[in-house]
Design brief:
Distance between the termini: 85 Å
Structural class: alpha+beta
Shape: elongated
Strand content: 15-25%
Strand order of the largest sheet: 4-3-2-1-5
Radius of gyration: 24 Å
Largest sheet: 5 strands, antiparallel
Number of strands: 8
Length: 233
């Protein structure tokens, strides 16, 4: 009888071990899912980090709607399913597949060609502004203007509280193809920097001096005092 009980125990342990950290394979990046959130509420979303692709040992989901106030976690739309030291039943009890086409998830920092010179400085300013926005500002790529649906015709652009700030960054650089950087910078300031200045003081404080240095590179010296006055105000 003891041997039978030990055999049954060993079989149970084997099954648990075989089930350990399994189930995540069905949820690669881009998969459309429903995820169980606080209050036992199921919310639709897209897997943005599969277990195999990131170091936090879980599945990260960008929900279609904001549902919490942690803006650093995908602007209040993030959800996470632990995988590390978890079992298949526990994992799949909290996330389930939707019968929807996968969405392409792109990394705006690496998905497009490397930029040089002033164009790279525009991108650097955008990234710094996003870094100090407490999750409200994000650099998007290949997305619709007001949601995360894939749009192959969209380039890199900033989203404030989930909504597009004017044009693709590439468009500002196109203005400068004919060496018209002053026009490009002026439009960039009006369409991108002014909303940041109005809504995100921490972001603006982190970038205004860098923008001034860029203006001093682009504009003749006689215009520098006007830019200083404009940016410091």
């Amino acid at each position: 009888m003891k041997a039978v009980k030990e055999k049954a125990r060993d079989e149970k342990i084997r099954k648990i071990a075989a089930d350990f950290e399994k189930g995540w394979e069905d949820f690669p990046r881009g998969t459309r899912v429903e995820v169980r959130t606080k209050g036992n509420i199921w919310r639709k979303g897209t897997v943005v980090d599969g277990y195999e692709a990131q170091s936090e040992r879980g599945i990260n989901i960008l929900c279609d709607e904001k549902w919490h106030n942690s803006l650093n976690f995908y602007g209040g739309r993030g959800a996470s399913i632990p995988v590390y030291l978890n079992t298949r039943p526990n994992i799949t009890a909290n996330i389930r597949l939707l019968n929807e086409a996968p969405r392409q998830i792109c990394d705006p920092a690496t998905a497009t060609p490397k930029l040089n010179g002033n164009a790279a400085e525009f991108l650097r300013i955008a990234k710094i502004a996003a870094k100090y926005s407490d999750g409200r500002l994000r650099l998007a790529y290949n997305e619709e203007a007001n949601c995360t649906a894939f749009n192959e015709n969209a380039g890199r652009f900033l989203k404030l509280d989930g909504r597009r700030l004017e044009q693709d960054l590439e468009c500002y650089w196109m203005y400068a193809d004919s060496n018209n950087w002053p026009t490009a910078l002026a439009i960039f300031y009006k369409e991108v920097i002014v909303p940041i200045k109005k809504n995100l003081p921490k972001s603006y404080a982190a970038v205004w001096e860098k923008l001034l240095r860029l203006a001093e590179k682009i504009y003749p010296e006689k215009f520098w005092p006007k830019w200083r006055e404009l940016l410091k105000s």
